[in-house]
Write a structure and sequence with these properties.
The protein is α/β, with parallel strands linked by helices. The chain has 11 helices and 12 strands. Helix 1 runs parallel beside helix 2 and helix 3 packs parallel to helix 5. The chain binds flavin mononucleotide.
Length: 359
């Protein structure tokens, strides 16, 4: 009798034009260790150590100076940045890895002193994010057109830097998400109001980026029920089902969903009737699930078809060789929370590997 093996994290899979070696995806992780918004040598080592992932999705990377919100995050809008990222993509490819760049504009979520010339950050509406953030100004229509062009230029730069594709970051309360959800979008023009209008900016950005890369090398990240950065929507189910149905004809490389909320104890999410995992059934393409998965729950999600691939955030911070550890059922290193954002090599490139790499 032929035994049909269940699909698991180690079953090969086609992602757009790439055959991945496993379904273990490195989630995008801001680590605040670039210098002057330019990646440095230790960033190259960090990504090369993690090249055994089926796909690396880089940390959020600013499409423009205006798109920056935090100190020491990298960009992809100037020549030095392109050159620096080239070294990283080469290092990942040398270890037979694949790497997509996450394209990021923070919108209103910008700390004091980050925007050039003390300009205010920009947002769909002039609503300040809670915390130490700066009061934003509402975008004019012509500003929006310029930002779409910035996405296109950043996509061009990512191509020049040797990436395998790009992920459009439309999650976690940053600019595109600020347009999508009605807590932050109070516009009364074609970019605000009903959910069709609120989705318009996202689809324009996707169109611009697809024009550079082709749809099968473009992924998209959404976080429909994540309250991080003060986000909410009055009807997330209607909004995100509309968005995902609109994605189907685009044939993207993948849809990457942060399920639930990264504020685990968030009551508004816990009591919300909408389960973001239901979007899996609306989407006809390749689905990457994220948030709180471990080896067992990820294998189960893949075996039951509730995900095609699973991305891991915290586990990849502390386990550069996560696929090998999963394969061997080896113990996992714990993540040091104090060194997640910013700092030096400690908590960045010094997590032990089962077999140290010669880099
Ligand atoms: C230190 C840190 C930085 C993060 N940076 C990003 C980022 O740049 N872009 C993004 O989309 N998500 C970011 N996230 C969210 C992660 O990609 C992921 O959704 C989250 O860690 C939940 O997955 P996990 O339970 O596997 O860690 C970050 C999370 C952490 C812990």
């Amino acid at each position: 009798m032929n035994m049909i093996k269940e699909k698991d994290l180690f079953s090969p899979i086609q992602l757009g034009q790439y055959t991945l070696k496993n379904r273990i995806i490195m989630a995008p992780l801001t680590r605040c260790r670039a210098v002057n918004n330019i990646p440095i040598e230790m960033n190259r080592i960090y990504y090369q150590q993690r090249a055994s992932a089926g796909l690396i999705i880089t940390e959020g990377t600013q499409i423009s100076q205006q798109g920056a919100g935090y100190p020491n995050t990298p960009g992809i809008y100037n020549h030095k940045q392109i050159k620096a990222w080239q070294k990283i993509t080469e290092a990942v490819h040398a270890r037979d890895g694949r790497i997509f760049l996450q394209l990021w504009h923070v919108g209103r979520v910008s700390y004091p002193g980050i925007q050039p010339n003390e300009e205010p950050p920009v947002a769909p509406s002039a609503i300040k994010a809670e915390g130490d953030y700066v009061q934003p100004r509402a975008l004019e229509i012509y500003d929006i057109d310029e930002i779409v062009l910035d996405y296109k230029d950043a996509a061009d730069n990512a191509l020049a830097a040797g990436f395998d594709g790009v992920e459009v970051h439309a999650a976690n309360g940053y600019l595109i998400d600020q347009f999508l959800r009605d807590a932050t979008n109070k516009r009364d023009d074609k970019y605000g109001g009903d959910y069709k209008n609120r989705s318009r900016f996202l689809f324009k950005v996707l169109e611009a980026v697809i024009a550079v890369w082709g749809s099968d090398r473009v992924g998209l990240r959404l976080s429909p029920t994540n309250s991080f950065n003060g986000m909410s929507d009055s009807n997330p189910e209607a909004l995100f089902k509309y968005v995902v149905a609109g994605l189907n004809p685009l044939n993207l490389a993948y849809l990457h969903i942060l399920e639930g909320s990264i504020h685990v104890a968030d009551e508004s999410i816990a009591s919300s009737s909408f389960d973001a995992r239901s979007l899996r059934d609306v989407y006809t393409g390749t689905y990457i699930a994220n948030n709180g998965y471990n080896k067992e729950s990820a294998n189960q999600a893949i075996a039951t078809g509730s995900a095609d691939l699973v991305s891991f955030g915290d586990l990849f911070i502390s386990n550069p060789d996560l696929p090998e550890r999963f394969l061997q059922n080896a113990a996992l290193n714990q993540t040091d929370l104090d060194t997640r954002y910013g700092g030096d090599e400690k908590g960045y490139i010094d997590y032990p590997m089962l077999e140290p790499l010669a880099i």
